[in-house]
Amino acid sequence: MGVRAFVVGFVFGLLSLATAADDWASLTKRLHAPLASGEFSQVKHIGGLPLPLQSSGIFVVENGQLRWLTLLPFESELRISVTEVAQWEQDSKVWAADAQAQPMVATLAKLMLALVAGDAGALAQLFQLTQFEVIDEKCWALTLRPLDSVLAAHLTEVQARGCEYLAQLSFGEAGGDTTLIQLSPQS
Predict the structure, then answer these.
(1) Any bridge partners for residue 143, and if so which?
(2) Which pLDDT tens digit goes with each residue over 47-78?
(3) What ranges do the domains of the chain cover?
(4) CATH superfamily, domain at 3-185
């Protein structure tokens, strides 16, 4: 590689870092309203199944924990914290994955907590911001790609949209499955 090619590559690298930093700063300004509670609807497309899986319910963020309460098609609850992800049914824990023993659990917990909290700093530790679009004065859209190899083995990208708060999430999974989640604040 010649000196000229190195200099040109170096300059473009610095410009892309500056642009990414500006995009993260802009996102931080727009994510000023974390979602403390609300409703969700979720559609999961799984390869080989003719119809998507659909669910809906409510979520609550309290004491550093995301409680994901599915009401339809049947009731169940996930409790997501930085230490574990656990499934609860009728006030009993029926399944749990420890974050220390399973790094993917810790990473997914950080991701979900950062997304609903509007914590762009935490997202920047996990993802490269590959696209950031300002739709109008309040609304935005973004695409994230995992930085961590453990996360990249499961997720290819995360797309998010919102205005004053996060309104839509789309997860592209490494196996080709997709999940779309619509969020709305509790009224």
Answers:
(1) 131, 159
(2) 999 999 999 999 998 888 899 999 999 999 99
(3) 3-185
(4) Lipoprotein localisation LolA/LolB/LppX (2.50.20.10)
**Residues ≥6 apart with Cβ < 8 Å to 185:** 35, 37, 38, 165
| Dist. CA 105–CA 100, nearest whole Å | 8
| Matching residue, tokens 């996060």 | 166
- Percent helix, strand and coil across the chain, each to the nearest 5: 30, 45, 25
Q: What is the DSSP string of 10-62?
A: HHHHHHHHHHHHHHHHHHHHH--S--SEEEEEEEEE-TT-SS-EEEEEEEEEE
Which two structure tokens, joined as six digits, stand for 151? Answer: 């996360």
Cα 129 from chain centre: 12
Structure tokens at 159: 């797309």
Q: Would the pTM of this model clear 0.90, i.e. be above it?
A: no
